[in-house]
Automatic annotation (TrEMBL):
<dbReference type="InterPro" id="IPR043502">
    <property type="entry name" value="DNA/RNA_pol_sf"/>
</dbReference>
<dbReference type="Pfam" id="PF00078">
    <property type="entry name" value="RVT_1"/>
</dbReference>
<dbReference type="GO" id="GO:0004523">
    <property type="term" value="F:RNA-DNA hybrid ribonuclease activity"/>
</dbReference>
<dbReference type="InterPro" id="IPR041588">
    <property type="entry name" value="Integrase_H2C2"/>
</dbReference>
<dbReference type="GO" id="GO:0015074">
    <property type="term" value="P:DNA integration"/>
</dbReference>
<feature type="domain" description="Integrase catalytic">
    <location>
        <begin position="117"/>
        <end position="276"/>
    </location>
</feature>
<dbReference type="GO" id="GO:0003676">
    <property type="term" value="F:nucleic acid binding"/>
</dbReference>
<dbReference type="InterPro" id="IPR000477">
    <property type="entry name" value="RT_dom"/>
</dbReference>
<dbReference type="Pfam" id="PF17919">
    <property type="entry name" value="RT_RNaseH_2"/>
</dbReference>
<keyword id="KW-0511">Multifunctional enzyme</keyword>
<dbReference type="Pfam" id="PF00665">
    <property type="entry name" value="rve"/>
</dbReference>
<dbReference type="InterPro" id="IPR050951">
    <property type="entry name" value="Retrovirus_Pol_polyprotein"/>
</dbReference>
<dbReference type="Pfam" id="PF17921">
    <property type="entry name" value="Integrase_H2C2"/>
</dbReference>
<dbReference type="InterPro" id="IPR012337">
    <property type="entry name" value="RNaseH-like_sf"/>
</dbReference>
<protein>
    <recommendedName>
        <fullName>Gypsy retrotransposon integrase-like protein 1</fullName>
        <ecNumber>3.1.26.4</ecNumber>
    </recommendedName>
</protein>
<feature type="domain" description="Reverse transcriptase">
    <location>
        <begin position="506"/>
        <end position="684"/>
    </location>
</feature>
<dbReference type="InterPro" id="IPR041577">
    <property type="entry name" value="RT_RNaseH_2"/>
</dbReference>
Length: 835
């Protein structure tokens, strides 16, 4: 760009200009309050390729993740480009850290959805549990079961010793024996209301059980509001008198029933009995007025008058409630706006509880799986062991992914200076080196060294899969005839996702249109990062594919190698399998069918038999000779070192191998230079190994299994961390017995099963820690034996002169082995541990 003549001077009529000095383009601006002789603000105009880096420096660490205005002000003091404000806004809005921490105003309310007006008393009731209270009464009462009628706001309350399902069901049966069984009961999702005992109770009496939206108490707001009122009354009574609140509970209910409800205009007594009841205040009034009892009335006339009175009261109450709902909705909706999400959208979920204000307020992102009604959404979690959950729209906000669109603008001509006609900003994330995560514990020099190293291998970091020539996959089906299946039925939303995935794969060259005689159907599953994985059901093809045997590394052996390292880096090969090409016959066999046509893979797809073995052989060859500082489990590569200088050398060696192989690495999934990393479901580093908290939480939230398959699923996840649980086999024996071939598919859940279920959960929730083994130091083995199993613990002495566990071992004894003597079992435990 060459200026034909000097730009015009700044003045009140020309407050900005562009100038070129020493090959750099500047924008000079005369700010609003400045005089013409004041020095103007000078902003360096930034080329496209440096803008994302500047945005990161201006907003991310160490700039403190400021908001849009502060980030814009921080950046605008020194730099300029057309559309910078929009880019800053998009960058800040898509910052994952800011979205997780959030602000109070992030929770935007949707318009109020009034509850349906119920006209028949006790047709629908709300039920909840209040408590536990700090101290038990002398009769052992610590909870209160509360019931509220939707039509009349008539409350019921029963003091309970515990909140278990059996006690709750008995109390409800006593209440409904007096007022009649309702058609609908609304409760929260507490375990005591969802237990099998309660389900049987509802079915036996024809009750439709409604469950409130989790973490949205307004769904059951009627009884929640009553709980607050009753709880305050009980608290005041205890402070003023004694802890015998359970003896006066009915008197407190009398007071509540006698007061007109603000929404209905009548008291619950009037709506049920058709007249005011005589209480202390009415007695005083009658005594002062000298009112005597009215003469008797014919029973038929009394019943007729009572029916008419109650009918009139309920009609008036309905009108009053409608007016109250409209008034509240108008007030509530002043600060609300219509909000909705589509199936497949990524959303953040508001945390129900926060330990501190510094803790992140939002979790996610998670995928919207289904819309339920006007304001509820079913969300799918990345962890397949977690069941989808329902959330209210007020607990959700959209997740903004970091994806910038191309901004195009035309620069204005100013005098005779030549300017470029079009400037393009290509800020869309392509998985480049700028997305690599470095340890915040690194010093300035260390950070500079690792950034320079990564930059020198910038072509290796890409969201687009590479294509290696070091492996080529074939599919040997022998003499099998082609297998052709029909596409699975899909929802319109799922079809849209499939169409988008196909277009993306076509653009990347991963697939191509096919005329193959083979065809397998496709399906979608959520990925751990919240995205959708496009999968092909190759089960029929796999059944006729000849197997290839190649060992997959043991997880515990890999963790032991990493455990004692001081610096660890992890790499994730971009869509690992897709970097391995297929030969032509294999491409035909990989064909898949969808509602938009038949396609075949050019690369190794997920789900094929032998794919893990093929890929593991590739990465093992890739790291050949690097076993002292690098390991790989399929696409997950880890580099570990004892010093920073060694770590730089090890990283460079691995990077060089990856680049030479034509492979690429997903930058946003890389962790560089950390002391502790997340690897294969564990936290590992600096001499210790811990189970991953997210996986442990999944175990903690696991519902009671009802089928043999569900028991096997639980044992599969819990067994992955069995090395952290002393006597795992003995504890799990009641559960493993349920999975025997002679056991029914619908399990018989006993107290022993529940005890084992709870013990395994408790053992993993106790934050177990294992020491990484030091093979240059001696080990100590301790063994034990019981009636049904044996156990052992491998230990090493630490710097604190204490013995720390390295691994726990356990084994369930067979029927024959369980009859051995104690001495034989003890000896067997020693032999098993040493082997």
């Amino acid at each position: 760009m060459v200026a034909r003549r000097d730009p015009p001077p700044l003045s009140s009529s020309n407050r900005s200009r562009f100038v070129v000095e020493e090959g750099l383009l500047y924008k000079e601006t005369l700010s609003g309050g400045h005089q013409e002789d004041w020095p103007p603000q000078r902003q360096l105009v930034v080329p496209v390729k440096y803008r994302v880096k500047l945005l990161s420096l201006a907003h991310d660490h160490p700039s403190g993740h400021a908001g849009v205005n502060r980030t814009k002000g921080h950046l605008g003091k020194s730099f300029h480009w057309e559309g910078m404000g929009k880019d800053v806004s998009a960058y800040v809005r898509s910052c994952e850290v800011c979205q997780r921490v959030g602000k109070p105003q992030d929770q935007v309310k949707a318009p109020l959805q009034p509850l349906p007006i119920i006209e028949v008393p006790f047709q629908r009731v709300a039920v909840d549990i209040l408590g536990p209270f700090p101290k038990k009464t002398p009769r052992g009462k610590q909870y209160v079961l509360t019931v509220m009628d939707f039509a009349t706001r008539w409350p019921e309350a029963v003091a309970l010793s515990n909140a278990r399902a059996k006690s709750v069901s008995q109390a409800l049966a006593d209440i409904f024996a007096r007022v009649g069984w309702p058609s609908e009961i609304l409760t929260d999702s507490g375990a005591n209301f969802l237990a099998g005992t309660m389900k049987s109770l509802w079915e036996a009496h024809g009750v439709n059980h409604l469950v409130a939206t989790p973490y949205h108490h307004q769904t059951n707001g009627l009884v929640e509001k009553f709980n607050g009122t009753l709880g305050a009354m009980v608290h005041k009574f205890v402070n003023e008198h004694s802890s015998d609140w359970d003896l006066v509970l009915q008197q407190l209910l009398f007071i509540y029933r006698a007061v007109p409800h603000p929404s209905l205009g009548f008291s619950p007594f009037e709506l049920i009995y058709g007249h005011e009841v005589k209480g202390p205040l009415q007695l005083v009034k009658q005594q002062w007025e000298g009112v005597t009892s009215s003469p008797g009335t014919n029973i038929l006339d009394f019943v007729t008058n009572l029916q008419n009175t109650v009918k009139d009261f309920l009609a008036l109450a309905r009108e009053n409630l409608q007016d109250a709902q409209q008034e509240r909705k108008a007030w509530y909706d002043k600060h609300a706006r219509e909000r909705s999400f589509r199936v497949g959208d990524q959303v953040m979920v508001l945390k129900a509880l926060q330990a501190t204000k510094m803790e992140a307020s939002w979790q996610g992102p998670f995928m919207v799986r289904e819309r339920l009604g006007a304001v509820n959404y079913l969300l799918a979690f990345p962890d397949p062991t977690l069941k989808p959950k329902v959330y209210h729209v007020n607990s959700l906000k959209p997740f903004c992914s970091r994806e910038f669109k191309v901004i195009r603008f035309t620069a204005q001509q100013r005098d005779d200076t030549e300017w470029p006609e079009e400037v393009y900003y290509e800020g869309k994330s392509k998985g480049g080196v700028e997305e690599v995560s470095f340890s915040i514990a690194l010093g300035r020099k260390q950070r500079q060294e690792i950034q320079e190293l990564c930059t020198s291998f910038a072509t290796m970091f890409s969201a687009t899969p590479g294509r290696t020539e070091q492996a080529c996959r074939s599919i040997d089906t022998g003499d099998a005839h082609p297998i052709r299946a029909q596409p699975y039925e899909m929802t319109p939303q799922a079809k849209t996702v499939i169409e988008r995935e196909i277009q993306d794969m076509l653009q990347m060259g991963v697939i191509r249109p096919s005329k193959s005689a083979w065809a397998s159907p496709v399906f979608l599953v959520p990925k751990p990062d919240g995205e959708i994985r496009f999968c092909v059901d190759y089960r029929k093809l796999n059944a006729v594919t000849c197997p290839q045997n190649y060992p997959i590394p043991r997880t515990d052996e890999l963790l032991e190698k990493l455990g004692r390292a001081q610096f660890i880096s992890t790499l994730d090969l971009t869509k690992g399998y897709w970097q391995v090409p297929l030969d032509d016959p294999a491409k035909e066999r990989s064909a898949f069918i969808t509602h938009v046509g038949l396609y075949e893979f050019n690369v190794l797809p997920f789900g094929l038999r032998n794919a893990p073995a093929i890929f593991q052989r590739l990465v093992n060859n890739l790291l050949d000779g690097f076993g002292e500082f690098a390991v790989a489990y399929l696409s997950n590569v880890a580099i570990f070192s004892d010093s920073w200088a060694e770590h730089l050398g090890h990283l460079q060696a691995v990077f060089q191998r990856i680049r030479e192989a034509g492979l690429t690495v997903q930058a946003k999934k890389c962790q560089i230079g950390l002391n502790r990393v997340t690897y294969l479901g564990h936290q590992v580093g600096q001499g210790t190994i811990n189970p991953l908290r997210a996986k442990v939480n999944a175990i903690q939230n696991w519902p009671v299994p009802k089928s043999k398959k569900q028991v096997q699923s639980f044992l599969g996840l819990a067994g992955y961390y069995r090395r952290f649980v002393p006597h795992y086999s003995q504890i799990a024996t009641p559960l493993t017995d349920l999975t025997r071939k002679n056991q029914p598919n619908e399990v018989q859940w006993t107290e022993k099963c529940q005890r084992a279920f709870n013990q395994l959960k408790a053992a993993l929730m106790s934050d177990p820690v294992l020491r990484a083994p030091d093979f240059d130091q001696p080990f100590v083995v301790s063994t034990d034996a019981s009636e049904r199993g044996i156990g052992a613990v491998l230990m090493q002495e630490g710097p604190d002169q204490q013995f720390h566990p390295v691994v726990f071992l356990s084994k369930k004894l067979s029927e024959r082995e369980s009859h051995w003597s104690v001495l034989e079992k003890e000896c067997y435990a020693v032999v098993y541990a040493l082997e």
